[in-house]
Write a structure and sequence with these properties.
Elements (H helix, E strand, L loop, with lengths): L2 E19 L2 E13 L3 E5 L10 H10 L3 E3 H5 L6 H21 L3 H4 L11 E3 L5 H11 L4 E5 L5 H14 L5 E5 L6 H13 L4 E5 L7 H10 L4 E3 L6 H9 L5 E4 L1 H4 L2 H10 L3 E4 L6 H14 L15
Parallel strand pairs: 5-6, 6-7, 7-8, 8-9, 9-10, 10-11
Antiparallel strand pairs: 1-2, 1-4, 2-3
The structure holds 2-succinylbenzoate and magnesium ion.
Length: 312
């Protein structure tokens, strides 16, 4: 099998505002840009605290590869390296796309890429800062906002939430992302409040830690407000398992860490899952590949989580 010249380089960039979640504070995005054959750019952007490999594991994998890489090697990247699976497969797709265009393959050149699904959600800053910032984002055209919870004391967050829901327009949608940081009782409390208020709460994302699948299943059956799994379905094998175990709520899919795009596409086409696609704060290279999947597979009424201007 023919090999393609392979090269890689790591990058670092700082967030405009650090991302504050129940997992801690995130200042700098680090990842790897890979280069395959002719014009095959790809990106490996792991988030180990979210369930992917670490950056170091991804770098070690790149370092042990030969200078020429075959398709067989790309399709045998192990499931323990999901961000690498995404990076290598999307680089290969990108390379083939260019090669086919050079060959003037009419079947490919006459079918342009589908447009990115438009409405995107935007992250609000954590805490009280959300109260001043939603207006700026509204003016930029965002109609779905996402706010992190499970970061501060629940009483404080409920107070801010109350103000926020009174302030935002009634047509705005709000997503609450707990990043697995709530207790069962806190999750019940949030869900009850979301059920009771008139605001448009689209869902609560990952209320409980990854291990508490059956509790989240139970909560999703007890309240009207929807629950979206995120950390619980970070990678494709996890996604498949939650589906098999009966999750029919929302699935957040982050293509950058989910694993093989081919297998992800196949799974989504075979099963009618309610999918919300979301970024992993990758660069433009990973973003294009992830948006391609989002355009194909995203549920119709779900804004994608690919807000921009997260970086300096
Ligand atoms: O999903 C979105 O709307 C934006 C992306 C996002 O929030 C995110 C990005 C990287 C890591 C974790 C998360 C998260 O959903 O918790
Ligand atoms: Mg999330």
């Amino acid at each position: 099998m023919r090999g393609y010249r392979f090269d890689f380089r790591s990058y670092r960039r700082r967030f405009l505002q650090p991302l504050i979640t129940s997992h801690g504070v995130w200042h700098t995005r680090e990842g790897i840009i890979i280069y395959l054959g002719n014009c095959g750019w790809g990106e490996i952007a792991p988030i180990s605290w979210f369930g992917s490999e670490t950056l170091e594991q991804a770098l070690d994998f790149c370092r042990q590869l030969p200078a020429e890489v075959t398709e067989e090697m790309i399709f045998s990247v192990p499931d323990s390296l999901p961000a690498c699976q995404f990076g290598f497969e999307s680089a290969l797709t990108e390379m083939k796309r260019w090669r086919n265009q050079e060959d003037f393959n009419p079947s490919l050149t006459s079918s342009p890429l589908p447009p990115a699904p438009c409405p995107s959600a935007s992250l609000l800053p954590s805490g009280e800062a959300a109260l001043n910032q939603w207006k700026r984002l509204w003016k930029q055209g965002y109609r779905t906002f996402k706010w992190k919870i499970g970061v501060d004391a629940i009483a404080k967050e409920l107070q801010i939430f109350d103000l926020l829901t009174q302030n935002i327009p009634s047509t705005a949608k709000l997503r609450l992302d707990a990043n697995g940081g709530l207790s069962y009782e806190e999750a019940q409390r949030w869900l009850q409040i979301c059920d009771d208020i008139p605001a448009n709460i689209e869902f609560i994302e990952q209320p409980l830690p990854v291990g508490e699948f059956s509790a989240m299943l139970e909560l999703s059956n007890s309240f009207q407000t929807a629950i979206a799994l995120d950390e619980s379905v970070a990678t494709l094998p996890q996604l498949e398992k939650c589906w098999e175990q009966g999750w029919r709520g929302i699935f957040v899919i982050k293509p950058g860490i989910a694993g093989s795009p081919t297998r992800l596409r196949q799974f989504c086409q075979e099963n009618q899952i309610d999918a919300v696609f979301s970024s992993v704060f990758e660069t433009e290279i990973g973003r294009q590949a992830a948006l391609q999947l989002a355009a194909e597979l995203s549920s119709q009424n779900r804004a994608i989580g690919f807000g921009i201007n997260y970086f300096l």
